[in-house]
């Protein structure tokens, strides 16, 4: 470490509703939260992971960092949405060096884009459970033009992108840093944003199923608007539990059906393939995870513990950083940003 300087990276979670910034330091006793911030809501500037209004987003990033006094320029960010493909594949057992070329050939069979148009990365997860001559490989592909455009956006805000990760893996990284999951536990991590929910089903640190759903907090709001004939702002208040007198929980549960069905199908797929047992724990994070009724609905539906994650459980911070705010109402929003800020150059996860 140069001149003993503490490591500090800025995790930048650029979501469709807001931008979250997290600055962490790695100290001798563990990780320390240096600073954090959440921007004002963005209005349709980002849709399905694609930036529609670059100037609005870069201004929002600059204003957020300035208002919070965040000085770090080295950024770890993440992508999600339709342009990101994550697949676990089986290949003949090879050394990491030989696998480099073989994976590119194998990727052509699994990625629905021209292989020259994607940024590709992989991680060898270990031997295949039922065939010692094969190995499990996690394949991650993102459309190259989206990654380059995303990196340019960060540079336009005066920052330096060091790593571009995937939202699902960032959330997993944050939770595995803060929780001790048993190797036998099958954990479903649901990062519920405004437009997209990232589903990541893991066991023993290995992601067995990863998918982005076009379901999020905006669906809750739209369903409430239709049901009660409310304006957008009135419905948003009701969904946050701020409007008394409305039977909002059944409406939210109705809107959660798509999420529950997707999780059921993922379980069925993993069970049929013999790859993982049933989900034994559900962890929620993201801005819409705290919507009243969501956690309770999923717990009843799957009959397993379901909780809102605390990504600061083992990360130290000065209480003054939250200046009277309820940390547990802020922390779930910072999950992806924390997972990104925990990354280091050369990490695979």
Automatic annotation (TrEMBL):
It comes from the Bacteria. It holds the Pfam family PilM_2. Coiled coil: none annotated. Gene3D superfamilies: 3.30.1490.300, 3.30.420.40. One of its GO terms (biological process) is cell division. Signal peptide: none annotated. Residues 9-175 form the SHS2 domain. PANTHER family: CELL DIVISION PROTEIN FTSA-RELATED (PTHR32432), ETHANOLAMINE UTILIZATION PROTEIN EUTJ (PTHR32432:SF3). This is Type IV pilus assembly protein PilM. It comes from Eiseniibacteriota bacterium.
């Amino acid at each position: 470490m140069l001149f003993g300087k503490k490591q500090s990276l800025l995790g930048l979670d650029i979501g469709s509703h807001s931008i979250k910034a997290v600055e962490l330091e790695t100290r001798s006793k563990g990780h320390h939260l240096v600073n954090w911030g959440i921007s004002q809501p963005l209005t349709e500037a980002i849709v399905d992971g694609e930036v529609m209004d670059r100037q609005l987003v870069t201004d929002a990033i600059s204003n957020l960092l300035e208002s919070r006094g965040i000085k770090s320029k080295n950024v770890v960010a993440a992508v999600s949405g339709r342009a990101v493909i994550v697949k676990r594949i089986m290949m003949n057992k090879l050394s990491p060096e030989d696998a480099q070329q073989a994976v590119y050939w194998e990727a052509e069979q699994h990625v629905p884009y021209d292989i020259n148009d994607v940024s590709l990365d992989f991680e060898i997860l270990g031997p295949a459970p039922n065939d010692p001559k094969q190995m499990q490989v996690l394949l991650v592909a993102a459309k190259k033009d989206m990654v380059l455009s995303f990196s340019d956006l960060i540079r336009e805000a005066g920052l330096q992108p060091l790593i571009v990760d995937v939202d699902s893996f960032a959330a997993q990284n944050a939770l595995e840093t803060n929780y001790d999951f048993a190797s036998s536990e099958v954990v479903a991590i649901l990062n519920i944003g405004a437009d997209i929910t990232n589903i990541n089903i893991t066991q023993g640190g290995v992601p067995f199923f990863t998918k982005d759903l076009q379901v999020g907090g905006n669906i809750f709001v739209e369903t409430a608007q239709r049901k009660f004939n409310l304006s957008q702002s009135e419905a948003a208040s009701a969904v946050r539990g701020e409007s008394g007198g409305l039977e909002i929980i059944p409406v939210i549960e109705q809107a959660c059906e798509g999420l529950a069905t997707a999780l059921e199908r993922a379980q069925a797929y993993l069970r049929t393939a013999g790859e993982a047992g049933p989900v034994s724990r559900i962890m929620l994070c993201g801005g819409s995870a705290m919507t009243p009724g969501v956690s309770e609905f999923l717990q009843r539906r799957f009959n397993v513990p379901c909780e809102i994650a605390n990504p600061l459980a083992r990360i130290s911070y000065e209480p003054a950083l939250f200046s009277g705010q309820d940390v547990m109402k802020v922390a779930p929003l910072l999950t992806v940003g924390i997972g990104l800020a925990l990354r280091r150059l050369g990490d695979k996860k």
